Amino acid sequence: MNVPCVRVPRESGEAARRRLADAGLLDHDHEITVAEGTLYIPVVDADAVPDDLTVVDYEPPARETQTTPADLLGFEPSYERLGDIVILDEDDPDRAREIADAIVASDLKAETVVNRASKVKGELRVRDWDVLVGDSTETVHREYGHEFRLDIDTVYFSPRLATERHRVVEAIQEGEHVFDMFAGVGPFAVPAAAAGAEVVACDLNEAAVAFLRENAARNDVADRLTAIHGDVREVAADYEGWADRLIMNLPHSASGFLDTAVRLASDDCVIHLYDIQHEDDPFGPGLAAVRAAAEPAYEVEVVNEYVVRSYAPHEYNVCLDVRLTKRA
């Protein structure tokens, strides 16, 4: 069976493999194959592969020695990987325990297995967990060559947004002023600084900001990243007119901070506004909110309308990229 593979010369294979592994893109169900001096590295998401790598369809052999949780359970369980934590979302505690036991008995590398015990809640966007295996909810997550230490018990982090974060960071130019208004542990802010931007990153969650500072140092960008614990509405007074790019990743409520975003915006500023909206009009409400906050002082131009993922039946998590240009 053909699967997407990165094709590279054999001598460049290890460097490419490491990049793909850091981004969480390796397909561990198929073998890396060498043919006539060319290496074929199976990947799980062809669209997320960096543009400088070539993706082709190829038929590598399946790995026969790996025992998966599905092999032991007789069905394919649903889970997410975050560093060495495996995250389940099971309503039945007995089924969750069965899956956790199968994960431990399989070849899947995991130090901790947790089951979601609540929805994301409160201003700090955290949730409760049932820890089924292990005794720590801390981990180090690797994404597109960067490392993020975090504790899922005290901060919010979604590995599902890796491709979207990479999309935004790829648009950043060296020397830009980037303001991440709801930064968390830094999955936007750290790569933005690594891309050469000057970054200010703010969050209301004190634990998240502590991890953010650690992650800036861990990824060698502390000299270009200022991490601030506080409400961005209060922080904005020190950065009025500063931002060339604003990241507003707070779905459900980011639109309520657009007045603050306009205060932060320079004369030419791109805003990445994340929202949850009904499929009938996923971008209209966000655009109307941007216009209400920015006009007539700014001209508002839609740069991109992007569906990030399905959020719930008939609802999408979307990103609206808009450019604000100051009117004379």
From TrEMBL:
Residues 79-326 form the SAM-dependent methyltransferase TRM5/TYW2-type domain. InterPro entries: MeTrfase_TRM5/TYW2 (IPR030382), SAM-dependent_MTases_sf (IPR029063), TRM5-TYW2-like_MTfase (IPR056743), TRM5/TYW2-like_N (IPR056744), Trm5a/b_N (IPR040601). One of its GO terms (biological process) is tRNA N1-guanine methylation. GO terms for molecular function: tRNA (guanine(37)-N1)-methyltransferase activity. Keywords: Cytoplasm, Methyltransferase, S-adenosyl-L-methionine, Transferase, tRNA processing. The keyword Cell cycle does not apply. Transmembrane segments: none annotated. Pfam families: TRM5-TYW2_MTfase, Trm5_N, TYW2_N_2. It comes from the Archaea. Its EC number is 2.1.1.228. One of its GO terms (cellular component) is cytoplasm. It is an enzyme of class 2 (transferase). PANTHER family: TRNA (GUANINE(37)-N1)-METHYLTRANSFERASE, TRNA METHYLTRANSFERASE. This is tRNA (Guanine(37)-N(1))-methyltransferase. It comes from Haloferax volcanii (strain ATCC 29605 / DSM 3757 / JCM 8879 / NBRC 14742 / NCIMB 2012 / VKM B-1768 / DS2) (Halobacterium volcanii). The lineage of its organism: Archaea, Methanobacteriati, Methanobacteriota, Stenosarchaea group, Halobacteria.
